[in-house]
Each structure stands twice: as C-alpha cells, then as structure tokens.
Amino acid sequence: MNVRTREWGTLEVGEERLVHCPEGLLGFEELRRFALVEIEDCRPFVWLVSIEDPEVSFPLADPRFFQEDGYGVHLSPTDEQRLDLRAGDSVAVFVVVTIDPHRGATANMRGPIVLNTRTRLARQVITYGAGLTLRQPIRSNQETPIRAAQPAATRA
C-alpha cells in the first residue's frame, strides 16, 4: 500500500505495517487506520501515520528509551478483549513523543499505545503509577536525534 506523508512523500508500506485503532487515539478518535513507518534517519523513533488523514502523524518510541528502571503496562481484561489477545500473542508498546523547544523531547508515559502484533489491532491505554508523567524527558545519557522527532501530532 502506498501511504502519502507530508515529511517523506509517498512511501510503500507492507500490510504487516498497517495498524487498526478501532477507538482512534486520544484527541483523534475519528482516525482509525494507520501505518507504522520506519525512517532510517529518524531512529530510534518510528512514525504512526494516519491513512485517512496523512497530515496527521505521531512520532513513537520504545518506552524503555525514556524510563531507565523499566516500564510495564497493565492491561485490563477489557484491554485484552479489545486487542483480541490470545495465548501466545505478543504486544508492542510505544509512547508518543513530543518536542518542546524549552523542555526538549518528552514522552507521554501515561498513554502508551499497545499493539497486538498478530492482529495489528492497537489501542491507547491509560496507565497509572508513581513517576509516570505526560512529559517524561528523554534520558540525558542517550544520543537522540531530536530533529527526527518533529512534529508531534499535526493537522493541516
């Protein structure tokens, strides 16, 4: 499938990179079909690009990049059902990255996106816990291509 992006033009995306969010994402509930796009120059970030509105994209990262002491997501039975999780399924967990000119790169640790890698179903879950913030700074000991993580969610 070809996915048109504002930043990189038209990209060929395999079916295995398509993601369906039946409930959308917080603030973008109307958008449900996405492509998970990897751009070599943007590593360690990946991009979640809306297929329905390619002007909307979110830089994502592995939460362990932001949390030194580990990061766990507890999925409720409702989360598991909505993700169609079965025995043996694996999930990928991503956090949405934002670039603030004053704070630098931060991640939303309270609203990770959980992806069932078998079904390609994803949902944004709300996590609670001491130390989990909406704007967790990137660890300072990481070499981070800050330029690659811009912009956060965008709309034309």
In short:
The chain is mostly beta strands.
Task: Please write out the topology.
Blueprint: E1 2-5, E2 9-12, E3 18-20, E4 33-37, E5 46-50, E6 57-61, H1 77-82, E7 91-100, E8 104-107, E9 113-116, E10 122-124, E11 136-137
Antiparallel strand pairs: 1-2, 3-4, 4-5, 5-6, 6-7, 7-8, 7-9, 8-11, 9-10
Protein described:
The protein is mostly beta strands. It has a single domain (2-149), classed as BH3618-like. It is 4% helix and 31% strand. The chain contains one helix and eleven strands; from the N terminus they run ββββββαβββββ.
CATH C-level label: Mainly Beta
Structural class: mainly beta
Instruction: Indicate the radius of gyration in whole angstroms.
Output: 15 Å
The helix/strand series, from N terminus to C terminus, equals EEEEEEHEEEEE
Helix content: under 10%
Strand content: 25-35%
Runs in which pLDDT lies below 50 for 5 or more consecutive residues are: 140-156
Profile the largest sheet.
Answer: 9 strands, antiparallel
The span between the termini is 23 Å
Number of strands: 11
Choose one word for the global shape: globular
- How many domains, as an integer? 1
What is the annotated CATH architecture? Roll
CATH topology: BH3618-like
Could you report the average pLDDT, rounded to the nearest whole number? 81
Number of helices: 1
CATH superfamily: BH3618-like
What attributes characterize this protein structure?
disordered C terminus, 156 residues, BH3618-like, nine-stranded antiparallel β-sheet, 4% helix, mainly beta
